Batch of 3 targets.
Target 1
Amino acid sequence: MEELMGFITGNKNRQKLLSLLGSRGQLEGVRIAKNMHIAKISADKILEELAEKDLIVEENGFYKLTELGTTVERSVQSI
């Protein structure tokens, strides 16, 4: 868990994206990029990184937190 916390807190955009999904539930990649005010390609890279760590999952073009992602997001928020 500490490794995942470091992975998230070590990058402001990862932290922001995790928080965004934590508060909004699920969003399309384009919406994520717009909400974060970053290029879609940058959002896609972060989404890929988070998916590789099993923190998010994509279903029908929408991204949402996994159970692990929710746990990590809550832990990051409490820091």
Target 2
Amino acid sequence: MPQLTEQNVREVLIDASMQKAVFLYFFVDAPECAKATQALTSAITDSNEYISLVTADISQPVAQAVAMQMGLQSVPALIVFQNGKPVEALQGDDITAHLQETMNKYMPSETDLKLREALQDEAAGDVSAACAKAAEAYKLDNKNLQAKHIYARLLIATKNLDKAKEILDNPGREESESSEYQDLLSALNLALKAQDSPELANLAAEYKQNPTDELALKYAAALVNAGKKADALELLFELLKQDLSKAEVKKTFLDILSTMAGDPLQGKYRRRLYTLMY
């Protein structure tokens, strides 16, 4: 980890804090600083993507000069820099007592990290994996509107319309007035209207008259495209109950399940299939 020197003050404090938080730690090599030094050097390593630890030995002239400029009276002391300016300070026992709490302010939460992964998966074209990550993020913090809206958008994209409707129901006043929520609601309503397409009705009638596996698979695919995954699963499950050796039916059934991460129906139908198999 970098140490404060006359040559690197601007680089490690001002410039670096434009990219991520810099924790500038003033100390002396003495027992009164040992606990804070151990806590900081253990908690903030060079591999930390969000916080940089810079140490300033107060016995050195440059550290003394910076400490005086900041009005520090004693060590150990911790000054947090962000965007080139000091934004927070801890001294003495408060460093160890409030270190994790302070670090959490400058690091993304587990929810944020899951959302970041979800968006990366979506950008890579794996919408199903993205939806699964968004489901995890929403489960971690269902009060987080960003997590809720990203999850809802991905549910609509993967035709999990019942689940999307469930989480978009009963919004708070502020949320209901937001443009993002209104856009999601419009997308959901359009998708729900598509459920009642003439093509789907025709396939339903055709399958009823001639219930072959080929038509069942075609009808199930149309149900999925219309956001009626539960109906598609039930249709295919009835066929598997009659004959578990129907390989294409079983494959399609499992393919549908793989797109339903975060939906309780996924677990329900997996358990029903395993009961049939074992």
Target 3
Amino acid sequence: MNTTWLVILAIVIVAIVFGLVVLVRRRRSESLRKHFGPEYKRTVDQYGNQRKAEAELAAREKRVRKLEIRSLAPEEQSRFAEAWKKTQARFVDEPSQAVGEADGLVKEIMQARGYPVGDFEHRAADMSVDHPNVVTNYRAARDIALRNRSGKATTEDLRQAMVHYRSLFEELLAEPTTPKEAVR
């Protein structure tokens, strides 16, 4: 085989390898985009770079896979459901306090399920792996709760926070719905 054919063969092999790398990255990006939904875009915007954002999302998945996330026992479900009813009832007379309670209750149920409950951003990032459709609600509710602490939230804002917290609370209270979550 002469040198020309070896060079052509090497170029073809490099082109095929390059094409495969591009294809794998696209599939990975599409998989992350599909799984994380709005959280994917938020993370890309936060990092300003798709590759860095995807590395962060993959790291979240890896970190959460190591956790021992569990279902709640029926007694725990009942206790949390009752606590939520009381929190919602309190909203009528004391909306500000009810939002604070809702935030604490979500944190408590997360801890009972096995999620770490360190700082908020870490909690939200961990939640985005198994509950990508409600993490946006969690962030919105938390923003309102923070405005509430400084006296800048209206009653309508507080009502909206309760709606957001409820969507996350109900998902956390329910039995695992994804095979990945049920295996844990």
